[in-house]
Hints:
Blueprint (H helix, E strand, L loop, with lengths): L2 H21 L4 E8 L3 E8 L5 E6 L4 E7 L17 E9 L3 E8 L3 E8 L7 E9 L22 E7 L17 H17 L4 E5 L12 H7 L4 E8 L10 E5 L1 H13 L4 H4 L14 H30 L11 E3 L11 E8 L3 H7 L2 H21 L6 H7 L9 E3 L6 H7 L4 H7 L12 E3 L10 E3 L6 H7 L4 H7 L12 E3 L4
Parallel strand pairs: 9-10, 9-11, 11-14, 12-13
Antiparallel strand pairs: 1-2, 2-8, 3-4, 4-6, 5-6, 7-8, 12-14, 15-16, 17-18
Helix pairs in contact: 2-8, 4-6, 6-8, 10-11
The structure holds zinc ion.
Amino acid sequence: MNSRSKQLTILITLSLAVIFSSFVTADVEAVRVWRAPDHTRLVFDLSAATEYDLFSLADPERIVIDIENASSLGDVTDLDFADSPVLSLRAAPLDDNGIRVVLDLSAKVNPSAFTLGANGEYRDRLVVDLYDLETRPLVTARTTPAVQLEDKRDLVVAIVAGHGGEDPGALSYDRKIMEKDVTLAIARAIRDRLNSTPGYKPMMIRDGDYTVKLQDRPNIGRESRVDIYLSIHADSASGRSAQGVTIYALSGETADRENARRIAQKENRADLLGGIEGDTNIADVDDDLALTLLDLSMAWSIEQSVILGSKILASLDSVAKLRRDKVQAGNFWELRSPDIPSLLIETGYLSNPDEAQKLATRSYQEQLAAAIVDGVMNYFHDAPPVGTLVAWQKENGIKPAAPTSYAVKRGDSLSEIAQRFGTSLAELKASNQLTSNTIHVGQVLALPGGPVSAAAAHTIRRGETLSEIAQRYQVSLSSLRTANKLSGDRIMVGQVLQIPSL
Ligand SMILES: [Zn+2]
């Protein structure tokens, strides 16, 4: 090869490289963020594998992430950086074909990043963890003694608002109310309550009017250690009479079929069995063992789903009509997570005019959310996972903590917040030393009183005694009598008791 053709070859190779690199772009399709007790995790979902460079800058503190070959950044307007040191995320194109993402920080962090390859249902991902340098107190709770809480993780509750975007879900009898709006409102109300409950961390899988692809959901769950998964829906039926709540867990039969299919199709086992600890490399075991392990994991999660669902039904019973008072076995794609207890909650029938109207009102949505959160808290308080704040609370005889504070969001009014948390405007103002009704976004309000929710009233069922009810709500028998002006312990089936706040 003479030097001329050598030059030409180099030229061709270079231009091919340019063409190639501009052809294979690794666009950021989505950015997701989670706040853990000691770090903030950002996941960049990429359309292809790529290289990145990460560095810190001081004064002011920033983290810079250069993502090569990327030309666009997904929608980041909905990212919730609450409680994290991240103030904002911005991005700008780099000269040599890439994107520079800048995270503005309120405090110095210890960053660490790694990439994950596309794997089965999973896309290529860039994971950035920003570790806090100082462990901050997680809660400043009235009801929780001052203790070191940094080792006690929050329970993560994934909340899926059914449908969204081009998929409206069920429509009301008059087509005016769409399931996707009702589910999002209830999901957000659940999120808000969990956000202000020490020991819990909600994770919204949809927080806007868009669709989250079903196949992306288990992925979201696994990466952020989700403890339970709640999918919120509303039903419809032909005719207008059907009404009430139905809760579904995955049926064992469906699970068996699904597991056999997954093993047969060699779906990624490490992902499927992410919850199983130990030295066994799941990818290396034979099909029989893989299926056995998967069955065990699935059997546990179905059992737990049913227990969780029963707790939620028990607490929903006082605010909603139950169409089925036992957890139903369902066959839904989104419940097929092998190691996360998962429920699909049909909150009522939009085909029923009365129920549709109720489902569209803020107060009923709040009541449903409160009852669902109560059920979740009861479930975890009974058998809290080791290492969680809730486990620690239980060991130390602390009752499930009620929401203690609330960060004001855009569009909130003080009276609406008072209503949502079952307190009066005057009480809310008094406990925050407010002289007017003016509040600002981000302001953290102390919430007076105890858990306010479904537990605020109890309808007597056959066989119940007053002392059992006092025990169940952890109030004294005398305060229960006083609150209901009872002279003795005589109660009647169907009678509604007011439960005094804790
Ligand atoms: Zn639905």
